[in-house]
Amino acid sequence: MRVLILGGGAIGRSIAESLKGEFEVIIIEKDQLRAKALEDSGFQVVQGDFSYTATLLKAGIDKAELVIITTMNVDTIKKTVYVIRTNNKEVPILTVLPDEVNLDELVSQINEEFEAEVKVDYAISPRSALKDAMVKTVMMLGEKKNANLLVRKLKELKSKNDSILIVMHDNPDPDAIASATALSVIAQTLGFKTQIVYGGEITHHENRAFVNLLGVDIRKISRGSYELKRYPVIALVDCQPNGNLTVLESSDYEKIKILIDHHQILQHLQELLPDDAFLDIRPEVNSSSAILAEYLRTLNISVSPVLGTALFYGIYIDTKKFSKLSHVDLKAIEFLAGKVDYELLDKIEHPDISTETAEILAKAIMNRRIYKNVVISNVGFITNRDAIAESADFLLRLEGITTVLVFGIVDDRIEISARTRDVRVNIGTVLREAFGDIGSGGGHAQSGGARIPLGIFKLAKDKNSLLRLAEEAITEKFLDALKVKEG
């Protein structure tokens, strides 16, 4: 890229030094002694007044791909822009501007004085540049604060023990698994022994492929298990005690010293956790993986291709294929982009589908009931909970359908997944309103889930009657929360 820097003073020289080696830089400097000093320093210099056509032509204005004006004199800037545009109408122009003049005013004055239509592409004022630099520094300090507080807590814990149990929610998805793995890496750099666990099932075929291909060491545990008893410290990732987490007993809560999550703060959380627990809960961020990637970046911890791929895919899934990104998610993607094994990523994203999942998808299609633009489907008694979510994703693709609910009975509970693309509907709020009084429900604006314990109904011998009653109750409560009449 051929860059002309107009002015070899302090600003021009600093810019040239920063660009040297990466770009073809030519400095135009009027002062003979300064021009000679720049040449002696190895810069390509054209001596002359850059507001004159002859000087710009000598510097190759016709072949320039960027022109940077470094003077703060407005009259000189206006004349120089006019001369540049006379000789090159398309080259991008970046200029410094005094604080009292904005870009629109500058262009208007040039057009009026020279009776010509010109454009200036970019302008930077000292005040705005200082503001941007300070805001950037504040953001960086905020990032470092979170990471440093985590490290401080880990060091404090390390003085008393060297083992941490990292607990995910019952049915961990890629975001939870990647985040737990990243926290494990951070803790291990400080000398901890770690174990990642969960209490439910990993049945979604993409999630199983994710675990198998990445070789992530995670274990399934049960409530009151030996692992929960023997580990003195518990860290929760991508979950909270009153969420989709059934393995912890109330006596385990006092051992929770770290909690990192991107979901909204659940009810009575502060009452459940010890006062000295490290909490980083950011509902404005769309993935826990992005938060953990921020820690790794600010702590300068090396990220392997496996971990980079895991975190990248975790963000990809929880941001709905990068369609909903916060600035933290964006920075994490930028940080991870060069650390991803894309061949491995493709295998994770396109695994073989299991026979059981295919059968459940078929049930969801066959058993669907349509209420205006809403589909409700009952997939019956199943063991693969994640197939319910996959079925909901699939049914939302049907023409004319904007909202979907799929439910099935897994062990002693009804599992529900819902999706919507109706911008007027917050499906998480709908599920909480519909099923919060008889179970639990919630989620985000476009996707969510609910769980209803069967209670005494699990003893029913007539399974068909149980399914019919469940479907009637779920349909009525869901449509009522959506304010849709049956018909």
Automatic annotation (TrEMBL):
SUPFAM superfamilies xref list: DHH phosphoesterases, NAD(P)-binding Rossmann-fold domains
Q: Which organism is it from?
A: Thermococcus barossii
Kindly list the GO molecular function terms attached to this UniProt entry.
nucleic acid binding
Q: Name one Pfam family in it.
A: TrkA_N
- The domain of life is Archaea
Fetch the PANTHER family from UniProt: BIFUNCTIONAL OLIGORIBONUCLEASE AND PAP PHOSPHATASE NRNA
Q: What is the lineage of its organism?
A: Archaea, Methanobacteriati, Methanobacteriota, Thermococci, Thermococcales
For this protein, the record's Gene3D superfamilies field holds:
3.10.310.30, inorganic pyrophosphatase (n-terminal core), NAD(P)-binding Rossmann-like Domain
Domain RCK N-terminal: from-to ranges = 1-124
> What name has this protein been given in UniProt?
Phosphoesterase
